[in-house]
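Budget justification aside, the reviewers requested a transparent look at the raw inputs and outputs of the sequence design task funded under Objective 1. We therefore reproduce one unedited record. The lines immediately below are the structure tokens for a 384-residue chain.
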């Protein structure tokens, strides 16, 4: 099958989202399909362009007008799909439903080209709380047209348990893993006197890392600043000033760090990947998943980060419901509320861990992107 993987932005080598999309594309190819990639980014001259496999098919130019035109003129994508014999479009939602986009997929459907749309997080409306007017207006437009856009699809791909989204049937899969690109966590740091925790994310309020920092503050307060074991929290990824100082959705990191006097125990590394990221992981023996999905109204989700931690072979904590991990012995479940994370409980759990990194990794071998993407294709084939 000839497939076009469609994204509405470019690829960043340090982005977990980009790595995921590249792994999905690889999974489709591993299943024997010819896959091309449509993206939107700047070329070397700074021009905004629509690309197919790194080759521009439309140069929009520079400036605000170029940014506007690319949101309303999708003729280049339609012409490419028709002329090149594309049979299926796998589109990743950017919460960007608009009349021109509805028109594009309607024309594609009439041309006999099938489309599915992945909605990475559902529901997502609450994620826009506290955002500026432009972002809230973008959401409002999406709310007006997303049902019409979904109606032009064969199905919505979701990582939730929802049977329908925006009035369209769903194909329910898990976020997958690409074990070829994730190194096994083979180091065994001595946790007798100190324990290092790691969280890797493009940090938002729903990650709930403030709960961990709050818990860390209570831990040091309980032992008058001198516990038997020092605990250090490493945050890898961009942290916006809003997250440091607080938003409508969550307390800020900075007030907790300042008020508890725990600055030396919270390390901000910024965005890392490759060897630099592995070096931080080598210091750590426990990982932090999402602790605030309830802030976005989400109860059930299969996050990419949980699967990446398991692929590395490191135990971790999260607060949502994830059927792939909820009963795994290397997972500590946190309550889905605003309580600080109990560090003593975390340490007791860590001390009880007996599984090796290789044994943890083996529990996610069935979650390869090759298998997950094949579920999508098989479901489409089964439609009568």
């Amino acid at each position: 099958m000839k497939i076009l993987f469609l994204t509405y932005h470019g690829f960043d080598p340090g982005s977990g989202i980009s790595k995921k999309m590249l792994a999905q594309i690889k999974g489709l190819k591993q299943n024997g399909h010819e896959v091309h990639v449509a993206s939107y980014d700047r070329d070397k001259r700074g021009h905004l362009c629509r690309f197919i496999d790194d080759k521009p098919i439309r140069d929009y130019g520079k400036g605000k007008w170029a940014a506007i035109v690319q949101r309303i003129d999708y003729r280049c994508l339609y012409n490419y799909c028709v002329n090149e014999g594309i049979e299926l479009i796998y589109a990743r939602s950017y919460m960007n439903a608009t009349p021109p986009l509805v028109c594009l997929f309607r024309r594609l459907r009439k041309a006999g080209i099938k489309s599915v749309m992945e909605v990475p997080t559902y529901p997502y409306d609450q994620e826009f709380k506290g955002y500026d007017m432009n972002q809230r207006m973008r959401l409002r437009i999406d709310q007006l047209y997303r049902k019409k856009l979904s109606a032009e699809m064969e199905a919505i791909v979701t990582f939730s348990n929802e049977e329908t989204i925006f009035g369209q049937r769903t194909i329910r899969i898990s976020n997958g893993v690409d074990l070829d690109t994730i190194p096994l966590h083979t180091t065994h740091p001595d946790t007798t006197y100190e324990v290092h925790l790691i969280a890797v994310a493009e940090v938002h309020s729903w990650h709930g890392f403030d709960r961990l920092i709050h818990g860390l503050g209570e831990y040091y307060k309980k032992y008058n600043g001198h516990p038997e074991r020092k605990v250090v929290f490493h945050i890898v990824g961009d942290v916006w000033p809003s997250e440091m100082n607080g938003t409508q959705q969550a307390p800020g990191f900075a007030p907790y760090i300042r008020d508890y006097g725990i600055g030396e125990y919270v390390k901000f590394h910024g965005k890392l990947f490759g060897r630099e990221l592995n070096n931080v992981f080598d210091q750590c023996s426990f990982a932090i998943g999402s602790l605030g999905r309830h802030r976005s109204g989400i109860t059930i989700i299969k996050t990419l980060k949980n699967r990446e931690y398991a692929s590395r072979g490191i135990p971790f904590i999260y607060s949502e419901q994830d059927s792939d991990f909820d009963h795994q012995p290397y997972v500590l479940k946190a309550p889905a509320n605003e309580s600080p994370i109990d560090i003593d409980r975390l340490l007791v759990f860590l001390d009880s861990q007996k599984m090796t990194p290789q044994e943890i990794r083996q529990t996610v071998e069935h979650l390869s992107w090759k298998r997950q993407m094949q579920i999508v294709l098989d479901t489409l084939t089964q439609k009568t």
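The mean pLDDT is 94. The chain has 13 helices and 15 strands. Computational costs for records of this kind are itemized in the attached budget.
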